Amino acid sequence: MNFEVSRKRMVAELVKRGITDQRVLGAMQSIPRHIFVEEAMSAQAYSDSSLPIGEKQTISQPYTVAKMTEMLKLTGRERVLELGTGSGYQAAVLATLADKVCTVERIRPLALKARRALDSLRLLNVNLKIGDGTEGWPEEGPFDAILVTAGSPQVPQCLIDQLAPGGRLVIPVGDRQDQTLTLVVKDLEGKVTRQESEDCRFVKLIGRHGWSDEA
Ligand code: SAM
Question: EC top class, in one word (predicted)?
Answer without folding.
Answer: transferase
